[in-house]
Amino acid sequence: MHPPSPAAAAAVMDFSQNSLFGYMEDLQELTIIERPVRRSLKTPEEIERLTVDEDLSDIERAVYLLSAGQDIQGTSVIANLPFLMRQNPAETLRRVLPKVREALHVAGVEMQLTAAVSFLTILQDESVSVHTYAHSFLQVILLHLEHRDAGVSNAWLETLLSVIEVLPKDTLRHEILNPLVSKAQLSQTVQSRLVSCKILGKLTNKFDALAIKREILPLVKSLCQDVEYEVRSCMCRQLENIAQGIGTELTKSVVLPELIELSRDEGSSVRLAAFETLVNLLDIFDTDDRSQTILPVVKSFCEKSFKADESILISLSFHLGKLCHGLYGIFTPDQHLRFLEFYKKLCTLGLQQENGHNENQIPPQILEQEKKYISVRKNCAYNFPAMIVFVDPKNFHMELYSTFFCLCHDPEVPVRYTIAICFYEVSKLLNSGVYLIHKELITLLQDESLEVLDALIDHLPEILELMSTGGESSVQENKLSSLPDLVPALTAAEQRAAASLKWRTHEKLLQKYACLPQVISSDQIYYRFLQRMFTIMMTNNVLPVQKAASRTLCIFLRYNRKQEQRHEVIQKLIEQLGQGKSYWNRLRFLDTCEFIIEIFSKSFFCKYFFLPAIELTHDPVANVRMKLCYLLPKVKSTLKIPADKHLLQQLEMCVRKLLCQEKDKDVLAIVKRTVLELDRMEMSMDAFQKKFYEKDLLDQEKEREELLLLEMEQLEKEKQQNDGRPMSDKTFEKKRRDSKTPTSLPKNIPISVPGSSSATPSTSKEIKKSKLIRSQSFNNQAFHAKYGNLDKCTTSKSSTAAYTPSVSGLSKTSMISLTDDSFRMRNTNSAPSSFSSNTSLPSTSRGTGNSVDPKSSGSKDTQPRKATLKSRKSNP
After folding, report:
1. Bridge partners, 685 (sequence order)
2. CA separation (Å) from 817 to 511, 625, 752, 786?
3. Which pTM does this prediction carry?
4. In whole angstroms, what is the distance from residue 325 CA to residue 302 CA?
């Protein structure tokens, strides 16, 4: 290009009108680039040649294009061949397939690849019988197996291997096996012999051992001794399939000697194939074969691996775990130690060469070598759980801890990513010794790479459970002391995920945080995590992330052990979300209401969230009203007649106002559909009904657990006061031991409480203490036992058959299955006192009058929407 004009140069410093003209002159010269593009358009003559009569049928058009069309048209017809076979198989076989055969003789690579895929699709679609397919298509496939292009040849080979699975033995013998005898001879091309190796490996699954020994094994031996190393390597990799087809005895007498000989081959790829095949066949051989024949070969291979190509080390490091497992029990102590040291050496391979030089100064061959070393260390991380079994978990600290530390602090992300994936397996294997890797868990949680964090949090709930219950420190009071850095690491991990663009990792992390009530204290969750969930719900721009935060917040609220904190959270949800200025916050409030319905008891929702939810029927934003309409059936399912008759009347009044006053046509259409669904719903009654029996039982258990949380808090306060005297150590230890018992309710707690104004079955101090013990047990253990169900609450209706209530007390299963949306029952005569307080929440009247004013509720978004909430009164 010519140097820029003075006007263009001035434009760098000045954006005045005169300087812009200089840019325009320069840009006009660039229009020459468009000229070659226009020349590539089709001419009228070319368009005429590509035009086909629209009146032709599919078959006629296919025949015409294959006969007189261009290659691209013929390729299109062949790609459409499976459709023609489904539509009219007889005519396609009679008229189109002969034209396809003719076209393939001179076809290019693209048409050949398309034909191989189409033939395979026809086989999978079962458009014709196996006999017809073999008669019409098999010869075409065999004809093009030795195509000069390797990609085309492999495509046809893959199709043939799939065809072999369905062909009868007679067809296989006459059409494939017999011609294979000549194709496998040394006089044939290398490509032909390679194809023969793969076909032989597939055929062994179709014949009996006698036929394999007589017809196939001679060809196998011949190819194992081929002069070309590619053929020997290819045949060696097929020996695993052949061994599975001929049985143990023939494998020992025929296959094993060939493998031993190939393991000493001059070609490194052949030796590698022999080693991998031996490792995969270890289960077939007995102890004598392993110790006397295979072990010396493996030892020799490992000793020579560092002197060989790095690709050998990559394969060896990948198979080392399976190798040590297969040879476990036949090692002498010296051999055991030697293999362990060999593994440790592989785990640090390449780290000693770190010199801090700039990558631009390192020769390319050194960079390539370092990449292979990274693959070796990654494979070592993959095999780490197997090596723990190899050394015995009891010896982990002495033998493998330093190696584990190195892998967790490896400078390369793929290595740390792999060890993060294996962290859960390592934790399970260590069992009571899991405390040894606490620091490594914190390290991986604080890793700078989000890929590592994403891999770790897949099993974070299970890992944290093992960390909190492993060893002797299994009670709640010692949970946090055993993991002092856990809370800062978890909060830092969430902040890093939130600051990144990988919102799926952030969403997953928030979902996994639902396990925290079983790991850390309620106060820690309240001060370090719960407020953060609020912030995410209010400020994050990603909807799945907001919903994950909302659900986790509801679970935190469910297991919060302080009434004052619970009331504060509820008030924030109603005021900042349900009555928020932004319609987006009010939408998230409805999401939260849905989670509340699933996780809490019906009475809890009715007491705190029913009126704020239906108040949104008068929201000024159509999207909010629309979302509420979808939620109304679930809202109605929380009511119970006749106790909640006044709430039902308010719900019906709001729906009637929507029908009469709604002006948005989309919302009105949804309202009409919702009304029909609400009319079809059957209401729960006060008394137990057979059709709702299991649902009511579980809902009553939710209500009972909410009550126990409050009673536990009250008894803890009494214990702290206790006339200024602390509880004796003996009594406290007894309660701690009792908290490890199964989480069943006391037998003196009735299943239902008819006509009582309080849900408390007894006021005696002994029964309260009993409830406290079981509530503590529930808080420590029951939550985890069914934690996995929290993510399945919308689809867990099928689990009702597995629930069996007892007569005298409810089973542990019923108590901890907290999230099944189809299992809910509420004490009809009173709200659970676990959520009653002397300090009143802002409340609104729950009378049957006009408690919702459409003007005030439908105020514009620029003004906060104020409402208060009042404790629900019993309706006798």
Report:
1. 641
2. 18, 32, 19, 6
3. 0.73
4. 16
